[in-house]
Amino acid sequence: MAALLLGAVLLVAQPQLVPSRPAELGQQELLRKAGTLQDDVRDGVAPNGSAQQLPQTIIIGVRKGGTRALLEMLSLHPDVAAA
């Protein structure tokens, strides 16, 4: 229950991406450029032409949990790449 309450508080406390008042003349240019960069990020294509993808699987290991052996076995598969 505490985790749910903490999650709700953090969700409400997120900073807003849109300013609450109009920007000054110098800041308007910066905001326009930032908006363009955000559009590029939303499209999934970086300015240099590369694209980012979320991993399909994330392996999280603990000490003495056999994670190293699992990673070594997975590295033998041609479709598995280390991040």
TrEMBL record:
Top-rank lineage group of the source organism: Eukaryota
Residues the record lists as binding 3'-phosphoadenylyl sulfate: 64-68
Record GO terms (molecular function): sulfotransferase activity
The UniProt record lists the keyword Calcium: no
Signal peptide extent: 1-20
Active site: 64
Matches recorded under InterPro entries: NST/OST, P-loop_NTPase
Assigned keywords, A-Z: Signal, Transferase
Name of the protein this chain belongs to: HS3ST1 isoform 2
Organism: Pan troglodytes (Chimpanzee)
